[in-house]
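Hypothesis: this fold can be encoded by more than one sequence.
Test: take the C-alpha cells below, design a sequence, compare later.
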C-alpha cells in the first residue's frame, strides 16, 4: 500500500508505452530522409510541420541518419542537410528505367493472367535491344537480341519513327550476321514491320506467345508466353492481349 492508501502497481506490471511497429518506423525514416533531400537545409521544427510526423519520431529518424553518416546538423541554425557521400551513393546506384516503371501495370496484368512468362525489352543503345525486366529467373543475360528474328524486338520497332528505325537498323547491321543483313538490305524487314504495324502484335503461329508494343513508348515492348499450353489458355491470352491493345487508345497504360 502507498502512504495515501492506494495500491501501487508494480513497475513490472505497468503497461509499457505502445512500441512503434517496425514497418512504420522504417517508413518514417525514409520519409524523413526524403524530407531532408527535398527541403534541406531544414530545421527540426520545419520538418515536423511539413511531414506531419510527431516531433519525437522525426528526431529519432534524424538521429539514426546522423549516426549512419547520411545527415548532419549545422552548428549555427541547427538545420539538417545531407552529407556529401550520400549524393555519390545515389548518383552511382543502379536504378530502374522509367519505361519499366511506366509499363509495370501492363507487365503485372500479363504476369497474373495465368501460367505465363513475361518479358519487357527496350533499346539500351543504338541498334541494341535487350530484355530488362522478366519473370524468368535466368532471364537477365544482358544479351542483345536480333532485330530481325526476335518477336519482342520486332514489336519494339512498330512505333518507332522512320528516322529512329533507320538509325537502329544501321547500327545493328554492323554486328549482324549475313542472313540478318540480307533481310534488312533486301527490304524484307521493312515489309514485315509494315505488315505487323497494322496488327500491333507479333503472334506466334499457335497463339502461345505474343509481343506487343505501346504507342506511348516507342522502342519498348512486352512479350507474354504460355509455359503451360492449351487451346483454351491460348484463346484467353489472345482475348487479354487484344483488350490491352484496344484500351491503349482510351488513355490507359
Amino acid at each position: 500500500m502507498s502512504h495515501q492508501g492506494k495500491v501501487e502497481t508494480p513497475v513490472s506490471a505497468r503497461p509499457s508505452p505502445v512500441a512503434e511497429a517496425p514497418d512504420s518506423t522504417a517508413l518514417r525514416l525514409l520519409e524523413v530522409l526524403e524530407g531532408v533531400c527535398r527541403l534541406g537545409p531544414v530545421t527540426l521544427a520545419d520538418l515536423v510541420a511539413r511531414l506531419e510526423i510527431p516531433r519525437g519520431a522525426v528526431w529519432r529518424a534524424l538521429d539514426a541518419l546522423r549516426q549512419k553518416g547520411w545527415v548532419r546538423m549545422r552548428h549555427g541554425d541547427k538545420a539538417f542537410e545531407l552529407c556529401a557521400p550520400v549524393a555519390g551513393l545515389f548518383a552511382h546506384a543502379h536504378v530502374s528505367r522509367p519505361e519499366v516503371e511506366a509499363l509495370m501495370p501492363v507487365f503485372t496484368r500479363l504476369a497474373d493472367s495465368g501460367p505465363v512468362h513475361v518479358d519487357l525489352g527496350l533499346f539500351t543503345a543504338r541498334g541494341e535491344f535487350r530484355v530488362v525486366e522478366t519473370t524468368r529467373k535466368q532471364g537477365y543475360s544482358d544479351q542483345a537480341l536480333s532485330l530481325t528474328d526476335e518477336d519482342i524486338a520486332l514489336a519494339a520497332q512498330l512505333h518507332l519513327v522512320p528516322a529512329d528505325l533507320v538509325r537502329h537498323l544501321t547500327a545493328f547491321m554492323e554486328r549482324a550476321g549475313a542472313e540478318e543483313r540480307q533481310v534488312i538490305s533486301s527490304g524484307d524487314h521493312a515489309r514485315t514491320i509494315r505488315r505487323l504495324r497494322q496488327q500491333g502484335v507479333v503472334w506466334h503461329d499457335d497463339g502461345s506467345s505474343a509481343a506487343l508494343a505501346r504507342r506511348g513508348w516507342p522502342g519498348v515492348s512486352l512479350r507474354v508466353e504460355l509455359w503451360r499450353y492449351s487451346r483454351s489458355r491460348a484463346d484467353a491470352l489472345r482475348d487479354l492481349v487484344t483488350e490491352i491493345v484496344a484500351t491503349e487508345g482510351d488513355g490507359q497504360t
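Confidence is low (pLDDT under 50) at residues 1-17. The longest strand covers residues 116-125.
Hypothesis status: open.
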